[in-house]
């Protein structure tokens, strides 16, 4: 078989590769890091709406929740309660920085193993928590695990996957996030009816951590990481195994060329900011993560039960509504896995932004008209209509900004600054997630239904950003991204002109 197909006119090289069982299983195991992340996202909102949890750790919130004439938008407004959710992401920011160094120095695989170990320790501590300090301590350990996993897993998948299958395989990370969220919402529904059920909800995080811990022992290190650390022969061996071919010389030489450039860079962070050719991926990768969080999706994921109770649903009804919403989230993500490498990244990002804009604005309008400061919501059908709108909104996120917010930043940086660039993208994600987790309930109390209009406007800005500033990266090998995407873009090509 030829080493590759070359388009002389365009100067493009297509490396031959099969979608082998080795690639599939390595990506699937690594993507369990998304299952951990998703379980935590889904579990926190349900737990914070449980009366037994509030009575033990936040009794003042429990009292406020059950006051007959309490402001509908302010029932759960408490900084310590929000810290329970957000402390994880604050820890994740610093953990991501450590992961960016360790994954370059020691490889992707050891960092993935460490991620599962920290997450497992956090789950155990939360299960046995007796006071708020233990609870927050467990959340911090979970955050270290999330920071390590989110920094490393998408990079691992992007490096091990063949370019033409990279979108779908990387989408497994987001798909398992949605499965984790769905599983968490169902666990919350079951445990809400038991005494101290919140312990089983929080302790359940140990299950995906154990799966990843055991599974990650058997995955291959990525060829790029092996070659970058001087293990050329081992890198060749793994490349042959995961590509299912003997003739991998062209791809090996391309990775070798990229690693030689990479190894000349002593400080990736300085190089990332010093070299103007790195600014297009730096700006786009960081903004994609910023926008992903300010779609408003994590508002739904963290606080869906709280939102449904705000609209007058009972505790069980709000948890059932959350299960329905998260089921839609998981199913819709499958569309992205199947079609993202067919239709491309830009198509889904633009369509998703439009869909989320319309639904956010409509939800805001309905709450503005029907949910007053005190008393039940006007109209018995309004909660059901809002639930349907939230499901439409969630599906728009699930096949666009959800998976692609992780995929695109993982595939656009050159190898020499890949860990540094992706760290900044993940750090932006964690910072924005922390802000939303820490301040959303306060913002809901202050802005009320207008908060949904704010997120709707943000989605308009996101769509315009993709239309004008994000190049299509479908089917392009990571090593060729600069030549085939940034240098041909109407705006970013100016950063590649010689002075």
From TrEMBL:
<feature type="transmembrane region" description="Helical">
    <location>
        <begin position="347"/>
        <end position="368"/>
    </location>
</feature>
<dbReference type="InterPro" id="IPR036259">
    <property type="entry name" value="MFS_trans_sf"/>
</dbReference>
<feature type="transmembrane region" description="Helical">
    <location>
        <begin position="79"/>
        <end position="99"/>
    </location>
</feature>
<dbReference type="InterPro" id="IPR045262">
    <property type="entry name" value="STP/PLT_plant"/>
</dbReference>
<feature type="transmembrane region" description="Helical">
    <location>
        <begin position="111"/>
        <end position="129"/>
    </location>
</feature>
<feature type="transmembrane region" description="Helical">
    <location>
        <begin position="135"/>
        <end position="157"/>
    </location>
</feature>
<comment type="similarity">
    <text>Belongs to the major facilitator superfamily. Sugar transporter (TC 2.A.1.1) family.</text>
</comment>
<keyword id="KW-0812">Transmembrane</keyword>
<protein>
    <recommendedName>
        <fullName>Major facilitator superfamily (MFS) profile domain-containing protein</fullName>
    </recommendedName>
</protein>
<dbReference type="GO" id="GO:0015293">
    <property type="term" value="F:symporter activity"/>
</dbReference>
<feature type="transmembrane region" description="Helical">
    <location>
        <begin position="200"/>
        <end position="219"/>
    </location>
</feature>
<dbReference type="InterPro" id="IPR003663">
    <property type="entry name" value="Sugar/inositol_transpt"/>
</dbReference>
<keyword id="KW-0769">Symport</keyword>
<feature type="transmembrane region" description="Helical">
    <location>
        <begin position="380"/>
        <end position="401"/>
    </location>
</feature>
<dbReference type="InterPro" id="IPR005828">
    <property type="entry name" value="MFS_sugar_transport-like"/>
</dbReference>
<keyword id="KW-1133">Transmembrane helix</keyword>
<keyword id="KW-0813">Transport</keyword>
<feature type="transmembrane region" description="Helical">
    <location>
        <begin position="282"/>
        <end position="306"/>
    </location>
</feature>
<feature type="transmembrane region" description="Helical">
    <location>
        <begin position="21"/>
        <end position="39"/>
    </location>
</feature>
<dbReference type="Pfam" id="PF00083">
    <property type="entry name" value="Sugar_tr"/>
</dbReference>
<dbReference type="InterPro" id="IPR044778">
    <property type="entry name" value="MFS_STP/MST-like_plant"/>
</dbReference>
<feature type="transmembrane region" description="Helical">
    <location>
        <begin position="169"/>
        <end position="188"/>
    </location>
</feature>
<feature type="transmembrane region" description="Helical">
    <location>
        <begin position="450"/>
        <end position="471"/>
    </location>
</feature>
<dbReference type="GO" id="GO:0015145">
    <property type="term" value="F:monosaccharide transmembrane transporter activity"/>
</dbReference>
<dbReference type="InterPro" id="IPR020846">
    <property type="entry name" value="MFS_dom"/>
</dbReference>
<feature type="transmembrane region" description="Helical">
    <location>
        <begin position="318"/>
        <end position="340"/>
    </location>
</feature>
<feature type="transmembrane region" description="Helical">
    <location>
        <begin position="422"/>
        <end position="444"/>
    </location>
</feature>
<feature type="domain" description="Major facilitator superfamily (MFS) profile">
    <location>
        <begin position="26"/>
        <end position="474"/>
    </location>
</feature>
<dbReference type="InterPro" id="IPR005829">
    <property type="entry name" value="Sugar_transporter_CS"/>
</dbReference>
<keyword id="KW-0762">Sugar transport</keyword>
<dbReference type="GO" id="GO:0016020">
    <property type="term" value="C:membrane"/>
</dbReference>
<keyword id="KW-0472">Membrane</keyword>
